[in-house]
Design goal:
The longest helix is centred in the last third of the chain and has 19 residues. The protein has 420 residues and is α/β, with parallel strands linked by helices. The strands form 2 sheets. Strands 1, 2, 3, 4, 5, 6, 7, 13, 14 and 15 form a 10-stranded mixed sheet that branches. Strands 8, 9, 10, 11 and 12 form a 5-stranded antiparallel sheet that branches. 34% of the residues lie in helices and 21% in strands. The chain has 13 helices and 15 strands. Zinc ion (ZN) binds next to loops.
Length: 420
């Protein structure tokens, strides 16, 4: 018999126990990647997993794995987890929730009589937050082949210590732990996480079925005009950078910002020179933040945006400088359906939603079917010490993870791949 529910009390106690490691006076957590606090957190996870009959191993990228072996050693594993590193003044739930919920699912299944054909592996990815060593998501990037281990090892913190030094020291503190080369292809990857936004709480829903992580492009656009006297310069002779801006902003919002109902187009900042009431503006610099869940659409809109800026006809010159290109992704639709139906069967109000923030699951989605389960967090607050999730929601997300994993463990490989 597949067990009906996780142990909500054990799950909560473990989440709070993990939050003690690196606890800050303000009630938050400071447990940055590859610091000593993470060593202590690894030890706690390893002890809990071994207590449940699972075995621990790591990879050379500093990812920690906890494996509950199935009957067939060759079958691709179901991989679940998140990260246990935090921001310097982070909360108790971001990342930690997904790892502890995954461990709770593993423990619940290990205690059942049921034996499964394939392995269930819990993962704690190395350096998701990127606060000490930037940028983040190093562990999942190396695991998925996005960045090489050598590139990641060369990154240094502000004191000059390299990832290589910190990573080797971390692994040396676990001489018993098997360390493998990074990367294997799982049957599927599921990550539970707090929403880090206000939507679920506002709508009184317990579960978010994450449809994807939206990609992002940002730009800095400069418009070069010419200054002139507001009282004397004839209108026909002006090169007014602010008037050019208003025309370009209107055009971009029409063409890009109204492409469909999921695109996000924002001009969040504008600066004008000399910014004086009686002088024609000679220069305007503004920002563009463009996001879309579909990578192809984002790329197309980015190209169109650049073309509009290049050909904008005005007496002023428009210079568009691309800043950030962060890819987005859509999660596996079959997995989304499984998660939604698990939530429905438990009577948890759920909705489909996009993740506005980035997660390790973004990279996993490039190597296997991947999905995420969100739970509400108070006021949508995250990366703060008072970050909070209700015990009821913490348990609900873990139960949906349990049901989803139970379905995947008995599923044939060809039935997991996205059918549409
Ligand atoms: Zn996180």
């Amino acid at each position: 018999m597949v067990p009906t529910s996780i142990d909500a009390e054990r799950l909560w106690q473990r989440l709070m126990a993990l939050a003690e490691i690196g606890a800050t006076p303000g009630g938050g957590v400071d447990r940055q990647a590859l610091c000593l606090a993470e060593t202590a957190a690894w030890q706690l996870l390893i002890d809990w997993a071994q207590g449940a009959g699972a075995e621990a191993f790591a990879d050379r990228a500093g990812n920690l794995f906890l494996r509950l072996s199935g009957e067939s050693s060759g079958a691709p594993a179901v991989l679940i987890g998140s990260h246990i590193d935090t921001q310097p003044q982070g909360g108790r739930f971001d990342g930690a929730y997904g790892v502890i919920a995954a461990l709770e699912v593993l423990t619940t299944l290990a205690q059942s009589e049921e034996r499964f054909g394939r392995d269930l592996i819990v993962v704690a990815w190395m350096n998701e937050e990127g606060s000490r060593f930037a940028p983040g998501m190093m562990g999942s990037e190396v695991f998925c082949g996005v960045r090489s281990l050598e590139q990641v090892r060369a990154v240094r913190d502000i004191e000059g210590a390299s990832v290589a030094q910190a990573l080797d020291a971390q692994l040396a503190r676990f001489p018993e732990l098997a360390v493998v080369e990074p990367g294997f292809v799982p049957l599927a990857y599921i990550e539970a996480h707090i929403e880090q936004g206000p939507i679920l709480e506002r709508e009184a829903r317990m579960i978010g079925v994450v449809s994807g992580i939206q990609g992002k492009r940002t730009y800095r656009v400069a418009i070069e005009g010419a200054a002139g006297h507001a009282g004397t310069q004839p209108m026909a002779e002006r090169q007014d950078a602010l008037i050019a801006f208003s025309g370009l902003a209107r055009l971009l919002d029409d063409e890009i910002g109204h492409h469909d109902d999921v695109v996000k187009f924002t001009i969040g900042r504008i600066e004008a020179w000399p910014n004086a009431p009686s002088v024609v503006a000679e220069r305007v610099v503004f920002s563009i933040d463009l996001r879309h869940p579909r990578q192809q659409t984002l790329d197309m809109l980015g190209a169109r945006l650049e073309a509009i800026c290049a050909s904008f006809s005005t007496p002023c010159r428009v210079i568009n400088e691309p800043l950030v290109v962060a890819p987005g992704n859509e999660f596996d639709r079959h997995l989304q359906r499984v998660i939604a139906s698990c939530a429905e069967q438990r009577g948890y109000p759920a909705r489909s939603m996009l993740s506005a923030a980035g997660h390790d699951a973004r990279h996993l989605a490039s190597i296997c079917p991947a999905a995420m389960i969100f739970i509400p967090c108070r006021d949508g607050a995250s990366h703060v010490e008072h970050e909070w999730a209700e015990p009821e929601h913490v348990a609900a997300g873990a139960n949906v993870l349990l049901d989803t994993v139970s379905a995947l463990l008995v599923q044939r490989e060809e039935d997991v791949a996205d059918g549409d």
